[in-house]
Design a protein that fits this description.
The chain is α/β, with parallel strands linked by helices and 146 residues long. It is built from five helices and five strands. The chain has a single domain, classed as Rossmann fold (3-Layer(aba) Sandwich), CATH 3.40.50. InterPro entries: Rossmann-like_a/b/a_fold, Universal_stress_UspA, UspA.
């Protein structure tokens, strides 16, 4: 039923719960899990130009992404599941949808809550936008559910 499962992570507890769920489904269906972390480089939600986003801030995002993906790798090491990790840059929902299309994902799995703060309140959650626009089924996982 599922051959390629995409799990989006931001390093939050909700994302780890989603990763555990994706890995469990992958075991059941003998699927490959693709874990994606997106370094947010979109500044459209800020009153600053893109030029004002510093390399240092980008580097912090890359480091956070590497840590988040390592956490998913750690979870996968305990299971008999093939895992591919990817670090993307851009708008999280757009990158998730583009990567899902690139790998021809059968299912996307995401936490219901992740990053907090002003951006989430201004433009809505990443999961909500992915659910709305995804051509494949999207499983949302609440950290309390997993």
């Amino acid at each position: 039923m599922y051959d390629r499962i995409l799990v989006a992570t931001d390093g939050s507890e909700h994302a780890l719960a989603a990763a555990r769920e994706a890995l469990g489904l992958a075991e059941t269906h003998d699927a490959i899990v693709y874990a994606l972390y997106v370094v947010e480089t979109s500044t459209s939600w800020l009153a600053v130009s893109k030029n004002e986003v510093t390399d240092a801030l980008r580097d912090v995002g890359i480091d956070a992404g590497k840590t988040a993906l390592a956490d998913v790798e750690s979870l996968a090491a305990d299971r008999d599941v093939d895992l591919v990790t990817e670090l993307g840059e851009g708008s999280a929902d757009e990158e998730i949808l583009a990567y899902a299309a690139e790998i021809d994902a059968d299912l996307a799995v995401m936490g219901t809550h992740g990053r907090e703060g002003v951006r989430r309140r201004l433009v809505g959650s990443v999961a909500e936008r992915v659910v709305r626009d995804a051509p494949m089924p999207v499983l949302t996982v609440n950290a309390q559910d997993a």
